[in-house]
């Protein structure tokens, strides 16, 4: 895993990760990883991230069960951003939508284009 040393993490030791459905290329979410999260993701093939608000490592789906099984990992030409293709169980969005990108900006308004696939009040007690 020498290639990890070549990645450009920011001054806080983080790198953005775009999470995408491996079957249909839908962008599900954006999160941040530190080296530990990336190594854990590689070793377990389950997406792990670093929470900037809680200042700790977390497994996607540890509370909801909506695990992301990692299929492929890419990095961009500047080596400062990751693209991770996953098989998403149920949904990525903690609000209940499949994708965190469920709203679209239109002509002066915002339109909800996704529909909820679970009730967060029942999942996060």
Task: Please describe the structure with a list of short key phrases separated by commas or semicolons.
14% helix; alpha+beta; 3 helices; 8 strands; 125 residues; four-stranded mixed sheet; 34% strand; Ubiquitin-like (UB roll)
Describe this structure in words.
By secondary structure, the chain is α+β, with helices and mostly antiparallel strands. It has a single domain (3-123), classed as Roll (Ubiquitin-like (UB roll)), CATH 3.10.20.810. The chain has helices at 3-6, 35-44, 120-123; strands at residues 15-21, 27-33, 48-51, 56-59, 68-75, 82-88, 103-105, 110-112. The chain contains 3 helices and 8 strands. The longest helix has 10 residues, at 35-44.
CATH class: Alpha Beta
* Averaged pLDDT: 96
CATH architecture: Roll
Please list the strands of the largest sheet in the order they lie side by side: 2-1-6-5
CATH H level, superfamily name: Phosphoribosyl-AMP cyclohydrolase
Total beta strands:
8
Counting copies of identical and different chains, the oligomeric state is single chain
What overall geometry do the principal axes of the alpha carbons give? globular
Distance between the terminal alpha carbons, to the nearest Å?
38 Å
The CATH topology name reads: Ubiquitin-like (UB roll)
* Helix/strand/pairing category: alpha+beta
Beta-strand portion reads: 25-35%
């Amino acid at each position: 895993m020498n290639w990890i040393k070549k990645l450009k993490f920011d001054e806080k030791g983080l790198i953005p990760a775009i999470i995408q459905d491996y079957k249909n290329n839908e962008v599900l979410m954006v999160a941040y990883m530190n080296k530990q999260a990336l190594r854990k993701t590689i070793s377990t093939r389950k997406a792990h991230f670093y929470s900037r608000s809680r200042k700790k490592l977390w497994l996607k789906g540890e509370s909801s069960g909506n695990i992301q099984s990692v299929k492929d990992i890419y990095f961009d030409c500047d080596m400062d951003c990751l693209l991770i293709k996953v098989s998403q169980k149920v949904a990525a969005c903690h609000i209940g939508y499949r994708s965190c990108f469920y709203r679209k900006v239109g002509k002066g308004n915002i339109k909800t284009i996704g529909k909820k696939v679970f009730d967060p009040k029942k999942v996060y007690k």
